[in-house]
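Here is the promised in-class demo. Please do not try to memorize the tokens; focus on the logic of going from shape to residues.
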């Protein structure tokens, strides 16, 4: 992909090959890490579910503790899955030339924002509007 195909704001220089490569490498590293974390979370959750939380042989404090641990693990796995999907989406956008353009308004997201948060799909204006809803 050439550096001119990626959207930039009027006050920014076009993406260089090195900048694009760095963003892609970060996203690919994140993809590997997130997949490993999801595998670990799935194993830990499976262990928690195998041990059960029905209270057989456990006092109420143990049952409550295991329930909280299971809920925390489920929440962590859901967050990791969301990050994994965002990372895959960013890599697809890099590949198809749409990376850097806001998915809402089509304006450039901004290099600095993408370098800080490579999974961003909205410009700051659209992101702020979304958060106010």
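The designed amino acids, position by position:
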């Amino acid at each position: 992909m050439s550096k001119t195909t990626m959207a930039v704001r009027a006050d920014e220089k076009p993406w260089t090959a090195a900048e694009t490569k760095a963003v892609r490498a970060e996203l690919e590293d994140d993809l590997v890490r997130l997949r490993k974390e999801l595998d670990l979370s799935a194993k830990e959750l499976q262990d928690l579910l195998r041990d059960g939380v029905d209270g057989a042989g456990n006092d109420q404090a143990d049952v409550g503790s295991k329930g909280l641990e299971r809920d925390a693990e489920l929440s962590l796995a859901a967050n990791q899955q969301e990050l994994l999907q965002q990372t895959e989406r960013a890599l697809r956008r890099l590949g198809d030339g749409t990376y850097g353009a806001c998915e809402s308004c089509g304006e450039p997201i901004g290099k600095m924002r993408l370098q800080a948060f490579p999974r961003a799909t909205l410009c700051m204006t659209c992101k702020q509007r979304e958060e106010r809803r």
